[in-house]
Amino acid sequence: MRIIGALLLAVACTLFGLGQARRLYFHKSCLEGFLDALRYMDAELKNSSEPVPDIFGELKSRGDWKLCEFFRKLCLRMENFGEESLADIWSGCVMEEESVRLTPSERRELCRVGAYLGKFSEDDQSEAIQACVSHLNDALRELSEGAREKAKLYTGLGITAGLMLATVLI
Amino acid sequence: MQNAAQEYLRAVRLLPPGLRAEFLGLSDEVVEKAEEIRLRAGRAPTVVLDGGETEILPGHTVTAAELQLVLEISTRASAHTYSDSIRAGYVTAEGGCRLGLCGTAVTEGNRISGIRRLSSVCIRIPREKRGCADGVFPELTCGGFRSTLIVSPPGGGKTTLLRELVRLLSDGGKRISLADERCEVAGTFEGQPCFDVGARTDVLTGAPKSEGVFLLLRAMAPQIIAFDEITAPADIEAAWTASNCGVALLATAHGAGVRDLFERELYKKLIEKNIFDRAVVIENRNGKRLYAVEELG
Predict the structure, then answer these.
(1) What percent of chain A has pLDDT over 90?
(2) Within chain B, which residue ranges are assigned CATH 3.40.50.300?
(3) What's the pTM value of the predicted model, to 2 decimals?
(4) Are B31 and B4 in contact (CB under 8 A)?
(5) Of A49, A52, A83, the CB nearest to B77
(6) Chain B residues contacting A, CB < 8 Å?
(7) What letter would DSSP give residue B83?
(8) Going by C-beta distance under 8 Å and a sequence separation of 6 or more, which residues neighbour residue B137?
(9) pLDDT tens figures, B66-95
(10) Which CATH class is domain B137-295?
(11) Burial class of residue A92 in the structure, from the number of CB atoms within 10 Å of its CB (0-12 exposed, 13-18 middle, 19+ buried)
(12) The domain made up of B2-124 is a member of CATH 3.80.10
């Protein structure tokens, strides 16, 4: 019985470590997704002056893309446009959406873009998008630099802690 | 009444939620007769009824943020796609509702490049008044339709009469090309006219009238070309060219009457060139519109 308990403990700690590592990679992939989306929005605004709701629609329908769910919910909420302003809809989604993993400061930076979307000239909107891209790029770089090491560390710590606890228990 | 309510609703939909709810609660008379909704920052909203401006909702003070939201709703959160018209001081929203904009002009050199910090917004409620041309239509088509100019002061109902005449002529068998620069006549939104402009009418939107008329002549082989508001010498040149190509014209001009046109340099040229054979003068008497046909030339 004691052995089974120790094994379960070891497995639980290992899974916890792996989960932490996975969350780290997921955060990185969300940042990459938003950078990709912002660059796409910027290009659409500058090159073809697309209406903002149409850009959201295009982003929603981009196949196996990781932010599909975010843009699906955004488009759904856009049906309420007129009751709420675009800035409110955008920041509501950015702040509340749980399918994406971002830090509060990254979310705030994204919200700032919403204050410009659809209200100003293409150049002004592009400027706001670029500022956000630059901020998220810095965050991504910081995250990437230590990501592999941190992931290894979390996994290793999980396994080690599990094994130690199991040994103590046995 | 049902039509009038729909037209009113189209305009009211452009308002922010709080203001919209208050406008939806107004009397049937306002719903039926309102021609414009006027919003000014720091003031109560007003509506134009029978040519006069009436303050309604005295308890509501319009804010600058509400004006900004009206613009945002009207442009479907994409003001950049309307930059040319915003520069010209207006936006045409869904249903042909035209918003006149006023605020702080942004200039580049001597040119207005945009408007920011809106201080006033005027929403025109386009009305489709079927039957409004019944009194003049037989006279205008007796012996075949000839080029006709509709004359009235601003807000006198020129566009409404133009729309109805286009519909009647088109359904009567004429092939009409409509140069609808501001999308006000047909109320075109995303390619679909919101108003009935007839089965044989081709609508060109967005193009300046002077260029639009030439495009329509080349592309659509019309029997009649219709357009709203002759306001510039280039419009007169375009009308002159079209009339020399054997096409009849139907257009509108600002003026109190035919005599008034003779007194203004721009329209004097128009009359002297004998481009139009007839004029329909609209007179507003005690809130009722009277139409009179006059021969020109």
Answers:
(1) 44
(2) 137-295
(3) 0.78
(4) yes
(5) A52
(6) 13, 17, 68-69, 72-73, 75-81, 83, 114
(7) H
(8) B165, B168
(9) 999 999 999 999 999 988 889 889 998 887
(10) alpha beta
(11) middle
(12) no
